[in-house]
Design goal:
Layout lengths: L7 H11 L10 H8 L3 H14 L2 E4 L3 E4 L4 H25 L2 H20 L2 H18 L3 H17 E3 L5 H17 L2 H16 L2 E3 L26
Antiparallel strand pairs: 1-2, 3-4
Length: about 230
């Protein structure tokens, strides 16, 4: 498999998430360079980036290895997302551009259409694009990068059950976009917090003795009740 040198990091990360490179396995520059059809230089740079992101660790006498996150590490990622996704939505309400709104509204329309038609195979990708665009609309490169890394690592550590009602999920997306479009940062924050809590309940660990559905979030307080999401 030959890929552009600048895409080596993405390719290795995707293979780690997919389980091609198993947790704890060694990542030798020579073998990776051969696998992806590049020199060892971009592989070395990619491994440094992936170590900073938490996918790779350096071990004495072993070199670069795929990280072995604990159950607590995985739980911490979900908690971080619960804090940062609402912040991103609140910032998006203050900083979004018309271009961001156009893309977000287009994704909501497409998601609602696919949900009504029962095209579940498209919805996961559309959901990812929606949240990536919402993070970009926050106008903070640091926040966007952090949320992107969180999504990658959560996808590595958890499987996600399909939502019981995809149309309701996309109605929630639409309500978030409406709040962002109006510049209502507090409502955007509250709607996104509730949406993220619901999504968290569908996550199941891929590994460990606690593999299974994520623990429900406790002590949450939101000024927006469920029916208002669908108004």
């Amino acid at each position: 498999m030959r890929i552009p040198a600048h895409s080596v990091c993405t390719a290795i990360r995707d293979d780690i998430v997919a389980g091609v490179h198993e947790r704890g396995s060694r990542l030798t520059e020579e073998l990776l360079a051969r696998r992806y059809g590049v020199s060892r230089v971009p592989v070395r740079e990619a491994l440094r980036t992936l170590e900073a992101e938490g996918f790779v660790v350096s071990r004495r006498h072993a070199g670069a290895c795929v990280a072995e996150p604990t159950e607590q590490d995985a739980a911490d990622l979900l908690e971080m997302r619960l804090l940062l996704e609402p912040l991103g939505a609140a910032r998006a309400a203050q900083r979004r551009t018309e271009a961001h709104l156009k893309v977000l509204r287009g994704l909501v329309r497409l998601g609602q259409e696919r949900a009504r038609q029962g095209h579940s195979e498209d919805l996961r990708a559309l959901d990812g694009w929606f949240h990536e665009t919402l993070a970009q609309a926050a106008g903070s490169a640091a926040l966007t990068a952090t949320l992107t890394q969180l999504r990658h690592r959560i996808a590595w550590m958890y499987t996600v059950d399909a939502p019981a009602s995809p149309p309701d999920t996309w109605a929630e997306h639409g309500a978030i976009v409406d709040a962002v479009a109006r510049g209502d940062s507090e409502r955007a924050r509250a709607l996104t917090a509730l949406h993220t809590e619901r999504a968290t309940a569908a996550h199941r660990l891929r590994f460990g003795s606690g593999a299974g559905r994520a623990e429900p979030v406790r002590n949450s307080q939101h000024p927006v009740n469920t029916p208002s999401l669908r108004n």
